[in-house]
Structures are given as C-alpha cells and as structure tokens.
Design a protein that fits this description.
The chain has 198 residues and is of the alpha+beta class. It has helices at 3-23, 27-34, 38-46, 53-62, 67-71, 177-185, and strands at residues 83-85, 90-94, 102-108, 125-132, 135-139, 142-146, 151-155, 160-164, 169-175. Strand 1 and strand 2 form a beta hairpin. It is elongated.
Length: 198
C-alpha cells in the first residue's frame, strides 16, 4: 500500500467513526443499520480489518451519505479568489462541489422596478443574505423587506426582482445551475436592479 493509499484508508476510517458519532449512534446501532456485526464495524474503524468496497457502500448508505463523499479527499485549493465583473459590480465564486452553482456578491443601489414586466422568471432556486442595508424582494405579487443579516430563499419560476430600500444594500446570493443560466441567458443578473458601475 502506498503512502497516499494509506492516508486515504485512514481518512475513510476516521470519517466513518466521525459520521457515526455525529449521528449519536453507538457501534451497535450503526452495525445494525448496516447489517454487519459490531465486531466487524469496530475492526473497520480501528484499522484492524481491510476496507472492502461492498462494506463501504453499505456503510455509506447506513450513514446517509454517498460512497463518493465517504472516500473524497481534501483538495489543496481550499481558498479561492473571486472572479470580478467590474462592469456590473459583481464578485462571483464558483462552488467546487457543484460546478453549476455559484456565489455572487453585489451592491444594489436602485429600488425594485415598479413595472411587473421587468420582473424575470426562469428555472432554478436562489438564496440570498443581505450583508448591509435593506433589500426589497418582489416575488410574484408579494413584496418582502429583507434586512441586514436576514436571508431569503425562493424558486425562480416565480417572477422576481430585487432592489434596495432607503439607500444602497449589499447582498450575497447563491444560484443553482438553472438559476445562474437563467440570469446569464436574460443578459446579466437581470432580476437585480442596477448596481454601481452598471
């Protein structure tokens, strides 16, 4: 076994134990869920039994995770820098675990549109948190005030737009693949009112 394989083996064993403990389960409880003996599970956690693929799959299911997550290794590039879109006042970070997902930081200066035809709808989900100021989220026929440190999550199939109230606000938004594509296809992050530099 190479050093890299040995490190992965050790990591997987620690992860199995950590996930079990996080669920508040004893060895006996996880063994029952995974349909393996308690002594087998103990030997797997302690490194006294070889890890077999079929057992890893069974344990992953019992721990409510995937085999990929159970054996994933840490990447060296933990810290990333944003892509800056100065023309629209945006900072964007891709989410590595889901390449279609991205995080966007934006300063909004304009109020939401008064014309419902300026609201956009597209596939996907969005989540945002207001970092400073007050944002107004128009969602269908409803209007929501989202204050500093409050968050909103919504399906983007509802017509929506976001603007500032009482001065500029800064938001951090998370877009799934479909929501990101919907904004890109409609020509910039069009559900948000113009920010500085637009």
């Amino acid at each position: 076994m190479t050093q890299e394989e040995s490190e992965l083996d050790s990591l997987v064993r620690k992860r199995i134990r950590a996930l079990r403990v996080a669920q508040g389960w004893s060895l006996e409880e996880l063994a029952a869920r995974a349909k393996v003996s308690q002594s087998t599970l103990s030997r797997i956690e302690n490194g006294r039994r070889r890890l077999a693929l079929d057992q890893l799959l069974t344990l992953a299911r019992a721990l409510d995770t995937s085999l990929d997550q159970l054996v994933a290794t840490a990447s060296d590039d933990v810290v990333t820098s944003p892509v800056i879109d100065g023309a629209h006042g945006l900072m964007r970070w891709p989410v590595k675990g889901d390449p279609g997902m991205s995080v966007v930081r934006q300063r909004i200066t304009e109020p939401p549109p008064d014309n419902p035809s300026r609201m956009r709808a597209h596939q996907g989900r969005e989540w945002l948190v207001v970092l400073s100021g007050t944002a107004v989220l128009l969602l269908g026929h409803r209007r929501y005030r989202v204050e500093t440190n409050q968050a909103a999550e919504f399906p983007t199939m509802l017509p929506h737009a976001i603007g500032a109230e009482g001065g500029p606000c800064e938001i951090l938004g998370i877009f799934d693949r479909d929501a990101r594509r919907g904004h890109r296809d409609s020509g910039r992050d069009s559900s948000y009112r113009a920010s500085d530099g637009s």
